[in-house]
Amino acid sequence: MMESYIKSGKIASKIRDEASKMITEGTLVIDLVEYVESEILKSGAEIAFPCNVSLNEVAAHYTSPANDQTAIQAGDMVKLDLGAMVDGYIADTAITIIADGNIDENYTQDEINLHEEIVEASEAGLEAAIATARAGIEVSKIGEAVHEAISEYKLNPIFNLTGHSLEQNNLHAGISIPNYDNHDHYILEEGQAVAIEPFATNGEGIVNDAPGHYIFSYLKSRPFRMKSTQRVLKYIQNNHRFVPFSGRWITNEFGERKGNIALKQLSEAMAVYAYAPLREKQNCFVSQKEHTLIIEKEGCTVTTI
Known about the structure:
The protein has helices spanning 2-20, 29-42, 109-132, 139-151, 227-239, 247-254, 256-268; strands at residues 46-55, 58-60, 77-86, 89-98, 156-157, 163-166, 176-177, 193-196, 199-201, 207-209, 215-218, 245-246, 272-275, 278-280, 286-288, 291-296, 299-302. The protein has seven helices and 17 strands. It has two domains: 2-210 and 283-302, Creatine Amidinohydrolase; 215-275, Arc Repressor Mutant, subunit A, CATH 1.10.10.10. By secondary structure, the protein is of the alpha+beta class. Helix 3 packs antiparallel against helix 4 (139-151), helix 5 crosses helix 7 and helix 6 (247-254) packs across helix 7 (256-268). A five-stranded antiparallel sheet has the order 7-6-8-16-17. A three-stranded antiparallel sheet has the order 1-3-4. A three-stranded antiparallel sheet has the order 2-14-10, with no helix packed on it.
């Protein structure tokens, strides 16, 4: 188990670092997403969830649909969140990069300085969480450490987003790791795997659903009259039963029209769950930094360093 966690972590961190170099003015989000996903497969690992590339006020859960023409602009706050899986054991990691280019054409120097501080704040929050994490610690204490570190910048964490525990073939295994002291007295145990992901913002620190659904997860089998929807459901059951999948993968397999109709019907019937992108309530910029940890008696091992 530990060997697989370490292997998936090395793969994810290498691809994260290489993909980060692509975050520059003019890069299409779909090119970045597809690069990450193809490199994970080339490495011999599996994709643990669709690569997320969320821009500016969007905190999470955006991945490109087919033919996405969204381009990264200079100064965009780009959150790259990816996951690799070896023998079902997951490495989940994220980084925020301010896109290179003619930034001063889009933002004032004060805005540029603020955006850099937002990125630094999520990094500081993660460092504080790693320093706090160990067997026997309450998860609320990790959240408290994150909140204190981000508050040093006079910024807020995202209060309604959390890290999560990991298990074999299970990205969100039931335990939440908050980004503030939510008084959750759950105690971490030696050997547990957790993904800790502080988000920082100059906004209120609450995210709401934004339009669109690009990421899905399988829930259960349902009967459907349309044979094409039945085929899509069977494909999902055979290929994406355990971890989230991209709507783009379905439309690439079945065509945009049939794929999108099927996903709509499957979502309405609760055969699959559709994730909306999450946008900061006040449309303020959001940064994210994430590592996967294995909890130990006196600390933790970071698999995605």
